[in-house]
Amino acid sequence: MDANALNIFWPFGLVIMMLFSIGIYCILATYNLIRALIGIELLIKAVTLLIIVVGYINGRTALTQGLVITLIVVEVVIIAVAMGVVLGIHSKNNSLDSRNIRNLKG
Amino acid sequence: MSNLLILVPFFSVILLSLIFRVKMKGAAFILGAALSVLQVYLAIFYSNAVWNNSPFLFSNFLKLNLVVDNLSRVMLLSIGIVSFVTVFAARYIIRDEGERFNFINLLLIILAGLNGIVLVRDIFSLYVFMEVVAVVSFILIAFNKDIRAFEGAYKYIVLSTVATVLMLTSIALLVLIAGSTEFSAVSQAIKNSPHGMFVMSAAGLFICGLFIKAGIIPFHGWLPDVYSEAPPPASILLAGIATKTVGIYTLIRLVSSVFCFDSRINYVLMFVGVVSIVVAALASLGQNDFKRMLAYSSISQVGYIVLGLGCGTPLGLAGCVFHLFNHSIFKSLLFVNAAAVEFKTGSRDMNKISGLASGMPITATTSVLAGLSAAGIPPLSGFWSKLIIIIALWGAGFYGYAVIAALASILTLAYILSMQRRVFFSKLPEGGQDIKEVGFTLALPALILGAITVGVGILFPFILNTFLSSFAFP
Question: Which of B83, B250, B308, B444 has the fewest CB atoms within 10 Å, measured from its CB?
Answer without folding.
Answer: B444
